Amino acid sequence: MTKKIVVPGEKITSDDKFLPGEGTMKQGKDIKALRFGLYEENGRLVKVIPLSGIFMPRRGNVVIGKVMDITFNGWIIDIDAPYQSFLPLSECPRYVNKRDLQDYLDIGDMVVAKISGVKSKGVDLSVLSRGLGKIESGITIRTNSNKVPRIIGKEGSMINLIKKETNTEITVGQNGIIWLKGDNIEDELFAKKAILFVSEKSFVEGLTEKVEEFLKKNKPKKISKK
Amino acid sequence: MDVTNLTKKRIKEYLSEGKRFDGRKPLDYRDIEIETGISKNSEGSARVRLGKTEVIVGVKLDVGEPYTDSPDEGVMITSCELTPLSSERFEYGPPKIEAIELGRLVDRGIRESGFIDWKKLCIKKGEKIWVLFLDIYTINDDGDLLDAACFAALAALFDAKFPKYDEKLEKVVYGEFTTKKLPLSKIVPLTFTFHKIGDEIVLDPTRQEEDSADTRITLSLSKDKDVAINSCQKGGEKDFTKKEMIDILAKAFKKYEESDELIKKLKK
Amino acid sequence: MKRHDGRKENEMREIKAEVGVVPNANGSAIFKFGDTVAIAAVYGPHPLHPQHLQDPRKGILRCNYDMTSFSVTERKRPGPSRRSQEISKVSEWSLLPVLKLEEFPNTVVDLHIVIIQANASTRCAGINAASLALAQAGVPMTGLVGAVSVGKLDRDIVVDVDKKEEDFDKGEGATDIAMAFTAEGEITLLQLDGKIQEDKMKEALEAGEKACMEIIEIQKKALKSIKK
Tens digit of pLDDT for each residue in B143-194? Predict the structure, then answer.
């Protein structure tokens, strides 16, 4: 089903069996779009999924961010969100020394973290679980956070396809920042191209076939074997 | 979000193999798009796109008094606005040093070359001359704003025509134009800014590449009887070795020799 | 009555609207009324510094309108003027009624409008571009906003005033009215200069509302035909 694009204020339905979900509002008998995006029905719930715009942080999201500043007890991290986020020392593995915060994460470093809480003044992060922490090598790219579900695909099908064909490890931050790590830069750039391809063609039908075709056609001559 | 330490590292590694993320060679430009006449109210105007970087330049002419030490020459005043529209890096407010330097570099490259015949901008010696305003605005910053601004300035100057001048009232009739073009010579100034990233020298960096660079040097060249450097400025916090400098000079002169197509494009 | 360019009284100039023209921005658009060209770019919602400007109940909208020096025939000195500051503020007020910024307390949505070429109605072109840019930036909006200038030339009401008409000096001369409407017909911008009677004012508001509804349809099309 091709989803329909709606603009703010556009009437979606006046059928009273539906309930206004995220990105919509009720006005009298009508449910109208509150944002520019794709409208979808989820049982009785009508939602508008934004096509573009800034990432809205939610507790539990795994995000990738850049260290902007170091305070006496933690790091200020930019996660491309309306709020600044903070990673406190208390949410880091015990071996990190209070005196040498810089040694663990320096300004300009990238980190994979989980959002432990969202307050009106900021976002709290944690790196206490597996798979979280400083990114040591590879590249990071910025994509539209609204395209992340498409980039990941149903049960990870899209991202796994790209991982396999480009031979790279890929960690997708819910905030649209993606970490690519391959054996060489060529592989990483190939993965980047593939991800941007998905992001640009995100609401085309039969995207998986198109991506497979793209990956076959554009494979760099020298792909390292794992 | 500015470039990360991680990506900077990869950019330098890749460059050491002579390669860039977008597949270009170190001295290749991105796709250049030039459009003139973007404001009908200006005496001349142009928009240049270098990849995703976009800069617009307008030429406005007015009359005024000459400087006392050059009573029979026209005057050029260049300004640059690094607009907050073009990037989150730029704040609203009076021009900061980055904008001031960019404007001055664009100005110097043109002024010193002999491209504009200043004497032909004289109306009445010691009393009245043409004042040429060159105003630069950035629309999208993806690196190399300076070189894009220089190309746009040239295209705008090639495009420019004199406004109508009322000789009795000694004033410009705003909004009415003649078909007379500016007094431009065959000496066309081109500006090349070379950036040092790690140990490699590149032209036309993207924003990420430019933020990964340690230092840069801007050279404006033009050809009269032979090709010569008209202005030069090193910027940035680190240094160049003598060897690197000599290498850059060679690259600059070579680039100028290869720029006939570009000059044709700028003339429209 | 005959307008100098042959347009009918309720006819606007050729309108062009395109979304996504400034890649760095979260949302952006270009809007043209004939020769009047405005670009708008939105960054945010993002953290607002300094802290004392933050509003704990909702995000704020910060608008900056500027004209390039060469957008007009007599060069405008670069930098803000009292006029541009006032237009920045009324533009902000024209868009706030449709924005739902309670979801983003303590943040700011930065809106930048630049006029590239001016042939009157610049603030209206700017607001139209801004409405598109805000939508693309994903800011929650109860609807789009359309803005247009309505003129009274002697005793005739015309829609989308250009520079020549601004300078009309026969009879009662020119009264220039800038107005903006939401899709529900609510007025979010109203400014005028000149001399206009009550019945003519009502006529102007009717004509303006109709034109703004047309503009909102054009904005809708522009958003729906976005390439990415």
Answer: 999 999 999 999 999 999 999 999 999 999 999 999 999 999 999 999 999 9
What's the total number of domains in chain C?
1
Q: For residue range B87-118, what is the model confidence (pLDDT) as tens digits? A: 999 999 999 999 999 999 999 999 989 999 99
Q: How confident is the model at residue C155 (pLDDT cuts 50, 70, 90)?
A: very high
Q: Which domain range does residue B179 map to? A: 5-267
Radius of gyration of chain A from its Cα atoms, rounded to whole angstroms: 20
How far apart CA B123 and CA B264 sit, in angstroms, is 31
* Length of chain C as a residue count: 228
pTM comes to 0.95
- Superfamily of domain A62-134 in CATH is Nucleic acid-binding proteins (2.40.50.140)
Contact A23 C140 (CB under 8 A): yes
Please report how the helices A185-200 and B5-15 are oriented relative to each other, as an axis angle in degrees rounded to 10.
Answer: 120
The domain made up of A4-50 has a fold known as OB fold (Dihydrolipoamide Acetyltransferase, E2P) (2.40.50)
In a domain, C227, yes or no: no
Show which residues on chain A lie within 8 Å of chain C, measured between beta carbons: 5, 7-10, 23, 25, 32, 34-37, 50-54, 82-84, 120-121, 146, 199-200
Q: How far is A5 from chain C (nearest CA, A)?
A: 6
At C100, which amino acid appears?
Answer: K
Here the ipTM equals 0.94
Q: Distance, in angstroms, between A93 CA and closest chain B CA?
A: 22
By the 8 A CB rule, do B27 and B202 touch?
yes
Residue with tokens 């100028």: B256
Both tokens assigned to B86: 């073009």
Q: Give me the half-sphere count of Cα atoms (radius 13 Å) on the Cβ side of residue B264.
A: 4
